[in-house]
Every structure is written in C-alpha cells, then in structure tokens.
Amino acid sequence: MTFSYMPGFGNDFETETLPGSLPQGRNSPQRPAYGLYAEQLSGSPFTAPRGTNERSWLYRIRPSVKHTGRFKPASYPLWKTAPNVGDHELALGQYRWNPVPMPKEPTDFIQGIRSMTTAGDVLGQTGMAAHVYVANTSMVDDHFFNADGELLIVPQVGALRFVTEMGVIELRPGEIAVLPRGLVFKVELVDKEVRGYVCENYGAKLTMPDRGPIGANCLANPRDFKTPCAWFEEKETPCRLIVKWCGNFHVTEIGHSPLDVVAWHGNYAPYKYDLATFSPVGAILFDHPDPSIFTVLTAPSGEEGTANIDFVIFPPRWLVAEDTFRPPWYHRNIMSEFMGLIHGQYDAKEEGFVPGGISLHNLMLAHGPDAPGFEKASRTELKPVKLEDTMAFMFETRFPQMLTRYGAELETRQDNYIDCWADLKKRFNGTPEGDWS
Ligand SMILES: [Fe+2]
C-alpha cells in the first residue's frame, strides 16, 4: 500500500477518502454526508492570533467521546516528564553515550521510549524532554495520544509507519516527523528493529524559523514538508487507547478502532520532512555562522529570539572558509544541547560519537572539538572540502536539561568522555607564533 501526502508547511489542507465526504462551504452541516460526525481538534486557543491559530475539522465514523471509556492508570516507567529532578546521583558533567541497546523482550514504540533528559515544566507548558526509542513490535490494537506536547521523531535505525487519525506517515532514517499534541496514532514497524530519538515539546508548536537577510529561500523550504492525506479503517474489534496526561499514563478500552477519520480540513496536522531537502547556508570567505544557521524548526518560548526548542541539523556541506578554524569552536552556552548522530561522522568528534549515540552539553558547560579534531583542523591545508556521509542533529533548549536516572545509569555512558579534551596542549609561550611543536 502506498500513502500520499500534501506539500506545504502550516497550510489550510483539505483531504477526503470518499467522494463528497468533506463538507464544502461550512464546517458543521446538520447531517454530514455518510452519517459522519463533525469534530473540531484545536491546537491553539480559539482566540489565538491568525498567524498562530491552529485547528482542524475531522469528519469521522464516531466522535472521539466514543473513543474513550473509563480510564485506568497505566505504567510506562522509563518515559519521564519535567520537572523530574534529583532521581540519580551522577555529578554534573559533559556526557556522551553509545547507542541505547535494542530490547530483547517484545517492545512497541510507546513501551520503547527511554527518557534521557527533561527540561522546563509540563504544567507550565514550557520546556521539553529528549527521549530515545527502541522497538521490535508493531502496535496492532493499541493507540496513543499525548496531551503533554507534540512529538518530533528522528529515526536512526529502521523504517516505521505512523498510522494517525489524520493519515499515515511512513518514515525512514534521514526523515523526521512531527505529531501534534492530542493526535491519536499507533506505530507499525516496517523493519524488524527500530531506534531513534524523540523530542517532546511541552510548549508552543515547532515552526519554521524566520530567515532574516537570507531571504525567501534556502534552509528548510515549506514545500518539502509533507502532510498525509486522509486514511481510515473501520475495525469493530477490541482496542485500547493510551493517554499521556501531565506526566501520567492512563488507558481505556473501546470496541473499535479510533482511526476513523474519513475526511478532514485545517492547519493542525502531522507532517514529515526529508532532511536531505535542507539547503544549508554558510560562510563563503572566512569564519562560520553560529549553528543556528542550520535550524530546521524552532519552537518559540515567548521571549523573542529565545527558543523553547531549536531543532538543528549538521548536514553534508562544503567547507571553503579561508584562514579559519573550520569545526565548531569551543564555547559555553546559555542554551542546553542534546545531540544525536543519525549516520556518518561528526566533524568536531571523529571518534567516540557514533551513529545512534548521544551527547549532552548542558547550561554553561564547556565543550568543543576533541584534541585530535583540534590538531587536525589547526594544521590542515584549507582547500575546499566536502563533508560527506554525515547527519548529526541537536535538540537545543533555553532550559537546563535534567538527566534522568535511566540516562545516568545507562551502561553505554562513556565514563571517559571528558578525556577527549585531555590532550589539548598549552600553545602559549609568549611569542606571537605560539608553540606548535
Ligand atoms: Fe555547543
């Protein structure tokens, strides 16, 4: 089966699976065609300004009130929610991990979420959590929605299928998907085992960054975002709906599939994006811009220029700058940086940061190229070089990222990460040339 998509970012989309199932000229006719129920899904307050007002109208076999019964508590102990502070003993530090191991027991996508950090406060709808997912089992009769935030999914191993109430998104490593807060979905595995990263955004929705003097093109372009066309199933068998709500999980049993939206229209919808379509902009003479130049999506915090989350990538690109230290410079940052590597090598750390790995450089903690990376970049001949086979990314937030107990105790944490800077030599000897012996 192939699934189709509509191009554009934040468009007012419309899509129907049966001819005439989408009402025209009104949202709520007295009797919608096919006996469907009309229902609004609001992603912003009704009165949000036009530029940030988001809602969709869903025409479905049953209204969502029929997709929940009485709730019972459910347990997903490795999925943590901010504030989640002080549940481990690990001291402050710069940290790096090898990939999270694949599960040995049957594990679906929701069971396979392992929280690494949380930031901000879900009750204040600020901040985020950075998770890894690992899974080897498709969700069949289980469905899920997250009231706590939207989910940005970054696959690293294996293809998956997000079967949502608004359509189906197929996703493979190199692509990302965003599932809005409240959207009901299940996850099917296309490959046997999958692994990847998730950013859970408690705050205002991710959007495209302003480009300023860059102009009307480059970076991520709106037409490369793809929203699925409507898809539904008519399945009258026992199903479950799992809900994450203010950090707790609840489950309800229903007698049918909640994926029953026959037609919909609106601008509150899931989407995917192929990172290979990102057109990087950079220095063409000397120095390099701040990494914010590689922002794909940004979630505003309410304070101008200060993101709740920036989703930034480090894609293949040409390095041409003259008389320039080309890798990322050493720095300390008020923003907190959670990095992952989808494939290849990262130019500031050629060893030790492996695909599927994670690094965490938190509020004001120093970081930068490791000693071999510094040596190489300081002595290399500065001809044009193409960085190939690389795709790292960063979830960056204005809030400190609190490490979870799972992350602190994970056996793949590299206890010697701090040593990657140990061999940086003192070059100062009082002469303008310095000591490069
Ligand atoms: Fe950094």
TrEMBL record:
Reaction catalysed by this enzyme: homogentisate + O2 = 4-maleylacetoacetate + H(+)
Cellular compartments per GO CC: cytoplasm
Boundaries of every Homogentisate 1,2-dioxygenase C-terminal domain copy: 277-428
InterPro entries found in the cross-reference section: HgmA_C, HgmA_N, Homogentis_dOase, Homogentis_dOase_bac, RmlC-like_jellyroll, RmlC_Cupin_sf
Needed cofactors: Fe cation
Record-linked HAMAP family: Homogentis_dioxygen
Entry similarity comment: Belongs to the homogentisate dioxygenase family.
Subunit structure comment from the entry: Hexamer; dimer of trimers.
Protein name as catalogued: Homogentisate 1,2-dioxygenase
Gene transcribed to yield this protein: hmgA
